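[Q] Does anyone have a clean structure-token version of this?
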Amino acid sequence: MYTDLVQKIESLKRFGNKSGREVTERLLPELGSPDRGMKIIHIAGTNGKGSTAVCIAAGLQANGYKTGLFTSPHLITIRERMQIDREMIGRDDFTRLAGKVLSVGMPEEYTPTFFDICLATALLWFKENNCDYVVLETGLGGRLDSTRGISETPVAGTITAIGLDHTAILGDTLEKIAAEKAGIEREWMPVVIAHNKPSVRKVLEKNASSFLAVDKISDTDERKTNGLFSLALKARDRDKEITPPLEGDFQYDNLAAALFTLYLTAPDLDKDKVISGIRTVTWPARIEKLSDDPLFIVDGSHNPQGVEALSRTLREAHPGMKFVFLMAAMADKDVSHMIEGTKDIAEYYICTKADTPRSLEASRLTEMVRSHGAKAVCAETLEKALEFARGSGAPVVSFGSLYLAGEVLKAYRD
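[A] Here you go.
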């Protein structure tokens, strides 16, 4: 029954006739408005949403708060998207609650998408379990995203780094994309604005009822007397008293955003418990090392900003090293930038196809890599790609797609 239900949900359209926001606004009341009364922390951004969300959840959980966490996409199982105290929903609960959501009669133009069903299922589960806080990550954008359809005004919002992704939907400049992400902002909701370029920050600040811009806080700020606020400043300034639980210098920005959000949400949290909680954080496919000898890293970077961060981290951690890049990419992504951003540290590329209709064919990706003057081999299946990777004798980095990351992780765990 569970398997059949998951297949049914996964067969639903990615986009509906109405925006996700409109669907959620209509769907949740039919389910008893499970979002009502929840203390929600709403997170938007291009990169760093998941890392920031899990750090916020860990800090709250370590202080004794039952914390719901909704993120996307999933890598291996749909149930990863909804967690309480970082334990994902069980099969029986998912089957029961998702079945309830699917049974709601909705007008055809308001038919829920895959993401809408996941969100509503998560909210029902969080409500049923009396979560003290819920950390809610947007799916796409902000203004029209399904998560924006919740009727309860969040206790805080966080907007992480803005980059170029989903440009056909959100806009072709950082500022246009920022305007869409800023759509999560509401009256009376304080917002943390993470490290971003000034023109982007200006857009994000424009409509915020009140905001805390990480880049603009002075070291002499009187709030520094608060231990949590002081800790957030140290994370922003790369102070070694608090280090990110995940690889990459950019994770300091995500950690700072998370800590400032915790300060806005619950300033009296025990600082030491927050640190202890954050140290336990793991987040799959974020420069995740699967083996040391030979070195095999899997990363879900799939847009220019993410690939630049990956490349920078690899250079800093392994100076002078060349890598074999195991790569797949969606047809709507900036593949040329992915190649240009990595080719100077590439021995060669193993080009494959992720298991989704959106993925470029391996042969087409191979042609694109070669057109940039880099070496590439074509592997029509992941099994063949991993065989090539293991036989290379070189350090391997899988990147370009979260779909690929999930498939690689599953192959390693199996």
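[Q] Thanks! Anything notable?
[A] The mean pLDDT is 95.
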